[in-house]
Design a protein that fits this description.
Largest sheet: 2 strands, antiparallel
Shape: elongated
Radius of gyration: 28 Å
Oligomer: single chain
Number of helices: 4
CATH topology of the largest domain: Membrane-bound Lytic Murein Transglycosylase D, Chain A
Structural class: alpha+beta
CATH architecture of the largest domain: Roll
Strand order of the largest sheet: 1-2
C-alpha cells in the first residue's frame, strides 16, 4: 500500500515538473518572439493619431498615382502600399488613369470629422 502511494506521488511530482517546465518554456519563447517582432516607434509619431477618410477626385491631365500617393498618403506610409490600396478601391487593374474620370482616394487627417 505504501509503495503504491509512493509511486503515485512520484508520478504526480513528475507531471507537475513537466507542466511547470512547459509553462516556463512558453513564457521564455513569448519573451524572445516579442523581442524579435516588436517595432521601435518614435514617441512623437506614436502620439499622433490620424483618421482615414475618402475623397472623390476628378483626374486631370498628366496626373499619376505616384503624384496622388505623395499628396494623400499617411505620414510614414509607403507610397507603393498606398497605390495598391487605390488600385484595389477603384478596380484599376491593368487600366491607366483617364483624364475626366473620377476616382476615390483615401486620405489621412488628424482632425476628427463627425458626419452625424
Amino acid at each position: 500500500m505504501f509503495r503504491k502511494k509512493l509511486q503515485y506521488r512520484w508520478f504526480r511530482t513528475l507531471i507537475v515538473q513537466w507542466f511547470l517546465a512547459g509553462i516556463a518554456a512558453l513564457v521564455i519563447s513569448l519573451f524572445f518572439f516579442g523581442m524579435l517582432f516588436t517595432e521601435k516607434v518614435n514617441a512623437e509619431e506614436d502620439s499622433a493619431v490620424y483618421y482615414k477618410y475618402y475623397q472623390n477626385i476628378v483626374i486631370q491631365r498628366n496626373d499619376t498615382l505616384w503624384k496622388y500617393a505623395e499628396e494623400y498618403r499617411a505620414p510614414g506610409q509607403d507610397a507603393r502600399s498606398y497605390i495598391q490600396e487605390v488600385v484595389f478601391i477603384n478596380q484599376l487593374e491593368g487600366k491607366g488613369l483617364v483624364a475626366g474620370k473620377s476616382i476615390t482616394l483615401p486620405y489621412y487627417s488628424m482632425d476628427y470629422i463627425c458626419t452625424r
